[in-house]
Amino acid sequence: MSDFDLIVIGTGVAGRTAAEDASKAGLRVALADRREFGGTCALRGCEPKKVLVAAAEVVERVRAQAANGIAGDAHLDWRRLVEFKRTFTEPLPAMFERSFAAMGVTLLHGVARFTSPGTLEVGGAVHSARSFLVATGAIPAPLGIEGEELVIDSERFMESESLPPRIVFIGGGYISFEFAALARAAGSDPVIVHRGPWPLELFDRDLVGLLLAHCSETGIDIRLDSPVTAVVPVGSELAVVLADGSEVRCDMVVHGAGRVPDLAALRLDVAGVAAGRHGVEVDHSMASISNPAVYAAGDAAALGAPLTPVATAQARVAVCNIVAPGSAVFDRTLVPSIVFCDPPLASVGLSEAAAREDGIDVAIRLVDTSGWLSSQRVGLHHTGAKTLVDRRSGRVLGAHLLCHNADELINLFALAIERGATVGQLKAIPWGYPTASSEIVYLL
Q1: pLDDT confidence of 70, banded at 50, 70, 90?
Q2: Sign, CA torsion 293/294/297/301
């Protein structure tokens, strides 16, 4: 008899969801982590970031309205803000441990590594299980450049006691745009250097163009086609060396060039688990294609987008199949994606590029909302939206937003797409006015 029915490796949102669901189903569960319990999203990512973003938004609204009746100065006291953020994160590991212990889940602390296809060593002790779930999340991707050790990651950025005057962010993805906005609100001069011709590649180009104009207006310097070859100390400064030989001098360099699954310590080969650069190779039951006793979910799985709702859904599918094989499949492709910059950039459903590639007959509406009251009253000068509607049925297929409250409004579009709502049905709703959602009728 195995020590456990299920050992979950990782205590982020996927691991916690799986452990809770499996425990409620009556399984003997162990939960393992080499770090404090809680994972990236709760302790080092989404949740603490949103605390910082909320404060930065207050500052930006005041600055944007300086000529419109808002008097006085607003600035971030970064040290106190970080202390405030810690009031959210520091209690969580102990709270999670108490909660799982109360469920009867065995807590394992230490590095986890497979010793056979059916056994796992954690902190020097070997445990057997009928099933395993790999939910170890992701870590910053190796940069492969000289001076990489001088580059800090997003976790260290959010824990910094102060922010220096000049900060360079390597990479043009979520992290760089979100943290550059934070740095600007805190009084720093941020520069984003991106190796390719266009940042935020997964988002609508027209709206990204508007975001770049906003960044330029607010003092965020963005340099495209600028691969970084080295980070070199020069006296008390750092020099970020670009491929063309030019340099950007700064006081801090932050990694924003993507993340990769955190799998190296697991010794997956010993367990016969196939994995690539995108994670554990799984089928739609979330089981390993080479060892059906091992499942994976979230950023550790090579299926689906690396988003929190995806991790939750995949963990639940995995547990369903561990309890009752063949009972569930993962097919959730409709998940909103949001960049929490200012203003937020959000997307859900079909993109214009995908529609053209698939030959879908869609009506595409691009609206520059910069002059709308909803943007003017909060001092935003570069906002817009793009929607895609099936010409024959009138159903909404995609929505892409750059505006105040886009992070909330995108969920209404997700609901509409999920339920097959048509333009006529949405326009017939008496939306509360004047609100962001009341403007849906003018975006379609």
Answers
A1: confident
A2: negative
- In the chain the domains, ranked by start, together with CATH numbers, are 4-140+260-323 (3.50.50.60), 148-257 (3.50.50.60), 343-443 (3.30.390.30)
Predicted confidence band at 67 (pLDDT cuts at 50, 70, 90)? confident
Q: Are 259 and 174 in contact (CB under 8 A)?
A: no
Tell me the DSSP string of 70-97: --S-----HHHHHHHHHHHHTTHHHHHH
Angstrom distance (rounded) from CA 63 to CA 116 = 59
- Residue 297's nearest CA partner among 285, 289, 30 is 285
Strand pairing report for 252-255 and 166-170:
parallel
Q: Could you tell me the two tokens for 246? A: 């030019």
Q: CA distances (Å), 75 to each of 56, 63, 72, 243, 364, in order? A: 8, 9, 10, 36, 40
Is residue 1's pLDDT more than 70? no
Planar angle of CA 391, 394, 399, nearest 5 degrees:
90
Tell me the CA end-to-end span of the chain in Å, nearest whole number.
59
Distance CA 421, CA 392 (A): 13
- With 0.85 as the threshold, say if the pTM is over it: yes
* Residue 244 main-chain phi, psi, to 5 deg: -85, 5
CA distance 194 to 181: 16
Q: DSSP readout, 217-246?
A: HHT-EEE-S--EEEEEEETTEEEEEETTS-
Distance CA 195, CA 231 (A): 15
Peptide bond connecting 343 to the previous residue in cis, omega within 30 degrees of 0: yes
Q: What is the mean pLDDT of the chain?
A: 96
